[in-house]
Design a protein that fits this description.
Strands 1-3-5-4-2 form a five-stranded antiparallel sheet, with helices on both faces. A four-stranded antiparallel sheet has the order 8-7-6-12. The chain has a three-stranded antiparallel sheet with strand order 9-10-11, with helices on both faces. The protein contains 14 helices and twelve strands. The radius of gyration is 24 Å and the shape is globular. The termini are far apart. By secondary structure, it is an alpha+beta fold. InterPro entries: Endonuclease_MobA/VirD2 (IPR005094). Pfam families: Relaxase.
């Protein structure tokens, strides 16, 4: 069983997310703790929200008092409602929440039945319930529950002292080649990524990008891969390095084999449903990009966003470090596609701008329309999708016998979208 703990401040959003499942007949209220039951056992979002108001009002200084927890057994496990309630009560007791009001929702919208628990981490005295080391404590409780209820153990990769520790490349630190090598030589051993775009999203966390090159060498078609170090803005900050410098696993042929194997493994991976659930729940709790990303990072998930020159999102990737898998948003679900996030965050930023204008504060700039709440300028890692390559390719020609970089998107959907945007831009100019 895998547990995910979301921490936030939007209690109403957390409850309404679960209420939507009930409204669509894919969920139910399974258990209430320290919350009065109604005569007909039906519960509105507003009713449940009011039960937490004394605790929220008493809060002294806890910035994120809301806890939105999901407990996810293996899809092959058959867990009864009574067992779900027992497990929820034991989990909350051992996590220190037995005296808190909480709601246990059961979801049946995916292949694995699972439960969500909504509560707050502040008592009526306004003090915060200690949550130090809550992730390892949660994992230990899940292992105990697996044994008690004869559940299939979660296949979590255990860290060892010999495991590679990856560090971001510092292009100012010298010996860039060795820095890149320390990442790309070993990354395929630890993470699953199904496309070059997904691989680049993962590399971007370590200030690295890879580009595919194609051309002719002695009259024969040839392809390869080159690596660059990136600066803080996601711009290339080094000369290109041939993949052969880093071993065969960093080369295009081996990576393509890795992509095929990763697609097969990820197709049936149970983590897909858990990750989708976690992202959806976070969307209902946070409506701006900065807070959304920060909350997912706390759950071990990085979000990599790709924008064109106009600031429109055309790609979004989620990197789950717990399962060590890299997912394109649309591969998780249509409701997690790039277009959905673009419209959602743009609407949020526009609303924020309107609010600031009403308060007499300087309006958001054009850039801030898609960089909400003080978010830094995004890495422009995938700019080569929308820009012509520079004519001075002497470095590449020297190293690759005339091979030139080829634009390579995350997937066909993203590439097609980028091409459509180009055509529209040209038509407007005409």
């Amino acid at each position: 069983m895998i547990a995910k703990i979301g921490k936030g401040e939007n209690l109403y959003g957390a409850i309404s997310y679960n209420q939507l499942k009930i409204d669509s007949e894919k969920g139910q209220v399974l258990l209430l703790n320290r919350i009065p039951e109604t005569l007909d056992n039906t519960y509105s979002t507003s009713y449940l929200y009011k039960q937490f108001e004394p605790y929220m009002s008493a809060n002294i200084k806890t910035e994120k008092p809301v806890r939105h927890i999901s407990l996810n057994p293996d899809p092959a496990d058959r867990v009864s409602d009574v067992q779900f309630m027992e497990m929820a009560q034991q989990y909350m007791q051992e996590m220190g929440y037995s005296n808190q009001p909480y709601i246990v929702f059961k979801h049946t919208d995916i292949e694995r039945s699972h439960i969500h628990i909504v509560t707050v981490c502040v008592g009526l005295d306004g003090k915060k319930i200690p949550d130090n080391y809550d992730h390892p404590r949660s994992m230990a409780i899940c292992r105990d529950l697996e044994q008690q209820y004869n559940l299939i153990p979660a296949k979590e990769k255990q860290l060892t002292g010999n495991e590679q520790v990856f560090r971001p490349v510092d292009y100012r630190g010298g010996d860039i080649k060795s820095q890149i090598a320390s990442v790309v030589r070993y990354l395929p051993r630890y993470y699953q990524y199904p496309t070059l775009g997904a691989y680049n999203a993962l590399l971007s966390l370590y200030n690295i990008t890879a580009e595919e090159v194609r051309g002719e060498l002695n009259g024969q078609p040839k392809s390869g891969l080159v690596y660059f170090a990136l600066n803080e803005q996601g711009e290339k900050a080094s000369s290109p390095f041939k993949s052969s410098l880093f071993g065969k696993h960093a080369g295009l042929d081996e990576l393509q084999n890795h992509f095929v194997a990763a697609k097969d493994k990820m197709k049936a991976a149970p983590v897909r449903a858990i990750l989708k659930n976690t992202i959806e729940a976070t969307m209902h709790t946070y409506n701006n990009e900065a807070d959304f990303k920060k909350q997912l990072i706390e759950q071990g998930i990085n979000t990599v966003v790709r924008r064109n020159d106009e600031g429109r999102i055309y790609g979004i990737t989620f990197i789950d470090h717990e399962s060590r898998t890299v997912w394109n948003g649309s591969a998780l679900g249509k409701n997690l596609s790039a277009n959905v996030f673009n419209d959602w965050w743009l609407k949020s930023a526009v609303e924020q701008r309107q609010n600031t204008e009403q308060l007499g504060i300087t309006a958001l700039s054009a850039t801030d329309k898609y960089v909400a709440n003080g978010k830094e300028e995004p890495h422009r890692l995938f700019d080569f999708l929308d820009k012509e390559q520079p004519t001075d390719d002497s470095v590449l020609i020297d190293g690759f016998g005339g091979l030139l970089p080829e634009a390579h998107g995350e997937d066909y959907e993203e590439q097609a979208f980028a091409n459509r945007m180009k055509k529209r831009k040209k038509q407007r100019k005409v």
